[in-house]
Amino acid sequence: RSSRNVEIFKDGDFFEDSARINIYKMILGELRRSPLGLGVLADRPILVSSYTWGYSHNIILEILINFGLVFGPIVLVILAYMVIYLIFFEKQAMVSELGLFWIGISSAFAISFSFWLENFFWGFLGVFIIFSTKAKDLEKKLYRLADSNKLRKILLSLLALVLMFGLVNFYQYKAKANRVLVTVEEPTIVLCFDGTYSIYETEIEDKLTTRGISPTLFLSYENLERTERHLTKEQVKRLADKGWDIQDGGYYRENYIEFSPEKVKLSLVEFDKFMEEMGLEKPRVIAPPLGKTTRSLNKIFREHRDLIQIMAGQEKSDFVYKEIKEGDRDFLNGFYLNTRALLKLKDSPIKEEISSALNQEGLLVIRVELKKHSKIEEAVDALLDLIDELEKQGFTIKSIGEIQASLAK
């Protein structure tokens, strides 16, 4: 089996940043809004709205978003002190050599890994605390300080208070998020397109219409008529007249995470105005480009939209829904198929997801993006063959708007 790097090189994406730049921007954005930090493993819920399994990919950002701009720098200073001490001042050769080995391995924390999950990070801390000369001196001082019964009682009371409020918030959140809105009773495919280039959507339009299928078009309206290859207003209106479900595809060339809250709200209002001028219903669903969003943005989206559809890629995840819950309004996971993926359907993990949806009689969202490619016609044919196969297997094919309408009942 080819390695991940070989596959990336073959696909021409070897020099891409693997989404790290976007991850850093998302973490920094949340840090600006929550300078006191969001707690242990806080980067996970921030990034999970855009990535199947997300973490900071940078130890400095991870510590700052966890502990905030007050305690985070203190933690960083302590780590920096340990590194400097081990290199220049540790008297025991064994501890110093182990420390240098650890520093070399830990350099990867600058671009990857999570210190919470790496055994060698915590193993080294244990070695330092147990064997380091400086740590032993500190340990004696802490023991003398901990002899105070009054101090122990204060610390235990604070810890109990934090745990109590944490558990209450956790169970309140889980109860709301797990409230079931819809139970899926038949195998269902939700078919969506990222609407950008006219030559591709219009090529497939008639072929879907003859099959009686009216999918969702996530429209990036800022790109309308931008070049001769982009969708026109007339084409969008024609698709809507044929039953296509037109929803908000956001800004295609820019990420919402780079916008101010005011600009995000304005973009949503402008899209609503555009739809009214076209004589179409206001969109009730939004699909941020490539699924990039944050919890703060989701709150703004929910003021104007009822459902947020997220693309999470092709990695293993929870793509099949037997129930749609309240929490899924902010995170409805979809399987992403671009032109290149359509040309490799035989080896695609979507086969497993389709089988799972069929066995569970569940719902699977498929989000298609057709881009310029030398084999675009083959990709379109592969998609049509997939749709025919899905119908033969007994799947009902719906739009995201139909799902949203069922949630609103």
Q: What this model shows, in words?
A:
There is one protein chain. The protein has 409 residues and is an alpha/beta fold. 53% of the residues lie in helices and 12% in strands. It has 16 helices and eleven strands. The strands form two sheets. Strands 2, 3, 4, 5, 6, 7, 9, 10 and 11 form a nine-stranded mixed beta sheet that branches. Strands 1-8 form a two-stranded antiparallel ribbon. Helix 10 (233-241) links the parallel strand 3 and strand 4. Helix 2 (20-33) packs across helix 4, helix 5 (93-106) runs antiparallel to helix 6 and helix 6 (119-131) packs across helix 7 (133-146). It is elongated, with a radius of gyration of 26 Å. The two termini are 48 Å apart. The mean pLDDT is 78.
Quick summary of this structure?
The protein is an alpha/beta fold and 409 residues long.
Helix count equals: 16
Q: Major β-sheet, in short?
A: 9 strands, mixed
Helix content: 40-55%
The tally of beta strands, per DSSP, is: 11
Distance between the termini: 48 Å
Average pLDDT reading: 78
Global outline: elongated
Q: Which stretches of 5+ consecutive residues score pLDDT under 50? A: none
Radius of gyration: 26 Å
The string of secondary-structure elements, in order, is HHHHHHHHEEHEHEHEHEEEEHHEHEH
**Structural category:** alpha/beta
- In oligomeric terms, what are we looking at? single chain
In percent, how much strand structure appears in the residues? 5-15%
